[in-house]
Design brief:
The protein contains 14 helices and 17 strands. The chain is an alpha/beta fold. The protein is globular and about 60 Å long.
Length: about 425
């Protein structure tokens, strides 16, 4: 890794968790320059829901390039954009009876967050935004102001204003109703909290430690928004695009957000793409008032449209995800029963789960041991105390089982054999999948 240490900025992060030089990737497997294979329980931090180099998407992309399709088009009209918009409207929006305008922002999730916060403030003519403890929404200035983690906030270098933090569900403990707390602050004109333009919330806080909001809590949050004329923004950047079982993480919860943010796996192939879904009456932008050079990633449009047609044209994929998520939950609960001295809690939804350890240092050791044994898995939470399980949605049962076997072995090595020579695990060569 000395080459990267010599040239690359100290800000690099994931390279420290996964110190290998990766060369190829297919499906749920990465291969480094030494030929070692790794099962991917990381999925590009949620960007690779459909795995690496999906063959159907790759074929479409190659065909598009061979035909000299437009690659960069700013926000001009292109065939690729038209095909994506058609697929998104007909396959995603209409079947769910959702009426949104679509705004293409810059290519990353934080660009979508910035756009949503700006249009909310513009539409309501109020500056304040309510975010939630444990929330992560990006690291550009507006987004990081709505992000709770001190590491990201400390990098801003200036005061992070115009955002008020409120307790996420269960933050105050299961015996306390955080909705009642929130409502009192909003309703009381002497609370010191300015009436916000919007609430921004994740239904599952990925970076924050895999904290899961219940449908009841989200409905209550929406009720407060409706009562006080506040917009509800759902940040579905990591939890969306099928990660929790349905395309949107809020489906079936009895809520209809005013704005929805998508990115990460929206681009299908790992290509950068993000968008804001906003109610038509909120589309109050002047032409060009919010823009960006790369808000028209036509390669991402091609892959995203193909992903929608391939996986979301009927309910079969969602049904597969239900089965997989139940298996994952069962395996994780079995781990908790097996290692009560190590595991404090397991939680999550769909194919986004977390294993919370009692000791954050041991969480780090487990992740490092898993990497040694051939598994990529990241940590999250305020103290990196949670092992975050986010495999590709298309992972097959055999690889899922092998990955869980490595996690089991890693916990065993760290907690039961910590002062002994680590146990060896049988390494397998995995076919491309």
């Amino acid at each position: 890794m000395q080459f990267f240490n010599h040239l690359e900025s100290n800000v690099r992060g994931y390279i420290r968790s996964f110190p290998a030089v990766f060369k190829t990737a297919t499906g749920s497997i990465l291969v480094d320059e030494e030929g070692k294979q790794y099962i991917d329980f990381f999925s590009g931090a949620g960007t690779l829901n459909y795995g690496h180099n999906h063959p159907i998407f790759k074929k479409k992309l190659i065909e598009y390039l061979n035909e000299d399709g437009v690659v960069h088009g700013l926000d001009m009209a292109t065939t690729a954009k038209k095909d994506f918009l058609t697929a998104f409207e007909n396959v995603i929006l209409k079947p769910r009876n959702l009426n949104y305008k679509i705004q293409f922002t810059g290519p990353t999730g934080t660009n979508a967050v910035e756009a949503a916060l700006k249009i909310a403030r513009l539409a309501k003519q109020r500056a304040n935004i309510v975010s939630f403890t444990g929330g992560f929404h990006g690291v550009t200035m507006g987004s990081v102001a709505a992000t709770g983690n001190v590491l990201y906030r400390s990098g801003a270098g200036v005061p992070l204003d115009n955002t008020t933090f409120m307790p996420y569900e269960k933050y105050l403990g299961v015996e306390h109703d955080s909705l009642d707390y929130i409502r009192k602050f909003i309703a009381n004109t002497s609370s010191g909290v300015d009436l916000p333009a919007a609430f921004i919330v994740e239904t599952v806080q990925g970076e924050g430690g895999v904290n899961v909001a219940s449908p009841k809590w989200l409905r209550g949050l929406q009720a407060i928004c409706r009562e006080f004329d506040i917009l509800l923004i759902i940040d579905d950047i990591q939890a969306g695009c099928g990660r929790t079982g349905q395309f949107f993480s809020f489906e079936g919860m009895g809520i209809e957000p005013d704005l929805v943010l998508l990115s990460k796996s929206l681009g299908g192939y790992g290509l950068p793409m993000s968008l804001v879904l906003l109610k038509p009456e909120l589309d109050q932008w002047e032409p060009g008032q919010h823009n960006g050079t790369f808000r028209g990633n036509n390669l991402a449009f091609v892959a995203a449209a193909e992903a929608i047609h391939t996986f979301w044209s009927d309910e079969s994929f969602s049904k597969e995800l239900t089965v997989k998520s139940h298996r994952l939950q069962s395996d994780l609960l079995a781990l908790k029963l097996r290692y009560p001295q190590a595991i404090k809690d397991v939680r999550g939804r769909g194919m986004l789960h977390g294993i919370q350890m009692h000791d954050p240092d041991k969480t780090k050791a487990v992740a490092e041991r898993a990497f040694e044994l051939g598994l990529l898995v990241e940590r999250c939470g305020s103290e990196d105390e949670v092992l975050k399980i986010i495999p590709p949605l298309v992972i097959d049962e055999a690889l899922m089982n092998e990955g869980m076997k490595i996690i089991n072995q890693s916990i065993s090595d760290v907690f039961e054999n910590f002062h002994q020579a680590p146990a060896k695990i049988e390494r397998k060569e995995y076919a491309s999948q």
